[in-house]
Amino acid sequence: MRRTRIVRSGGIILLVAFLTIVLSAFLLLTLNQTGIIAFTGGGWLINSYNIIAGYLGYSVLFFVPVLFGYFLFFAFLKTSLSRFQSDPKELDNVRFYSGGMEMFITLFFGIGVLFTAWGLQNALVSAIGGVTKTEAGELGAWGILQRLVDNGILIALWTTIVGGVGGYLMRLAKHFFLGRELIRFSSRRMEQDKMRFFESLESIKLHLEQIEEHMPRNL
Fold first, then answer.
1. Taking 90 as the threshold, does the pLDDT of residue 188 lie above it?
2. N or C: which end of the chain has fewer CB within 10 A?
3. What is the dihedral of CA 7, 12, 15, 21, to 10 degrees?
């Protein structure tokens, strides 16, 4: 019992430390995206972030926490599934974490859709909003297209791709890495429900037999 408490305490400490690191990183990303601070240097991490932010814009501030939440619940669900056989009380945790993963997948899709709509609207308004026919004629098709690109239409399209592809990859990861355990979990639940049903029937049968024994018999 004491060893279990120590293990759980250690797990909580590691989780808190990990969350602190992630939240600090998210805060730095937010400050960088809003222009309050700027990342400098030529490290691979900074270069990778600048490339990703260049393609996704502000949507990266929403994709990253959702992706983190997904992997966090993924780890919790895997742990609960492994403990379920020895501890049936993990049933609620399995349901909660599985539902949480589905929620994060839906949010990932939703972020892609919302930022696509917002990005397209922003690009169109910024590029051709208030432009007269004369100015449009002077700009030409290539000039208008260039203004759309400069005002973020490619970022809007990239958020669609990342949101769609990422969401489906998250579903595939859940199916391939946790699918068998979830199937066994469902089968075990069905067996437990079946056993409880038969036990209830047996209890009802015994109760009826007791009532029948105490009933007066006609002579």
1. no
2. C
3. -120
